[in-house]
Amino acid sequence: MQFGIFSVGDVTPDPTTGRTPTERERIKAMVAIALKAEEAGLDVFATGEHHNPPFVPSSPTTMLGYVAARTERLILSTATTLITTNDPVKIAEDFAMLQHLADGRVDLMLGRGNTAPVYPWFGQDIRQGIPLAIENYALLHRLWREDVVDWEGKFRTPLQGFTATPRPLDGVPPFVWHGSIRSPEIAEQAAYYGDGFFHNNIFWPADHTRRMVELYRERYAHYGHGTPEQAIVGLGGHVFMRKNAQDAVREFRPYFDVAPVYGHGPSLEDFMDQTPLTVGSPQQVIEKTLAFREYAGDYQRQLFLVDHAGLPLKTVLEQIDLLGEEVVPVLRKEFAVGRPADVPDAPTHASRLARARG
Q1: What does pTM read for this prediction?
Q2: Spans of biased composition, class Low complexity (predicted)?
């Protein structure tokens, strides 16, 4: 399995001090988080994509290219690349370029995002969200696999004899995760292409996650890519830890209460009971994360959100240290116990290149 960090890049006031970081400070903090993830022995850093306040990561490939130059092992990904409002040609070329710069340490997660106004900003209609996701990815998939593309669709100008440059590194496109919280059409899309399905389950109860993952696994097998158990699944998670669980709850509560994506809603205790959010000791994080396998099966990637809601950078880096020192080593060992031999490892450029070469 791969373990890592994802960031949504929110610029949020620290509720305990009232101070709001500058955009520059937040961008630099995201870089520091990525570097810390590699130092701590984690596998993946993923950044979101947003084009509106209070978020800063409007250009994920710019950030990931900078991180690529400062890391050696870390897999660089997105927590959402907006397949609905980005031009598929630009996605194809940007991520192929990043592949070359990072020596293949690149994949991406496609999604529709959760900000409705972004559609008209980029000349699209939110009511066409699902058709846009389907058509744009159909083109992106071809651009990475065909040297010359003739194409005509509904949402962009036709292409005649078009070649996206640079070509994917070693002829192997970046691995694609299709990210969705609630749309079965996206699980179906991931299954159809034999791609990965990432269910960012931080807002949802286990039963919902189970249904979405089971649908994807069943359809993956239906399209002939392997057994349901061989489908490639990723999950989200959100943690805040201290050695003492009571200290973690006391420290995190003011941040939870005003968090941009779930503040002013259910209580912290209710949210922890109903979703994967874990605020407590490292052992509690281990136990709850291991329980994901009970309803998602053996899966390939686990990403944690640790920097949301105005948490100071120092605190976030402490969280990553706890993950690297006390949590992830145990998760690696325990998730390996009883894992069937035919369940694939998480895809990497090296493993996919070896498969392509037979």
Answers
A1: 0.95
A2: 9-20
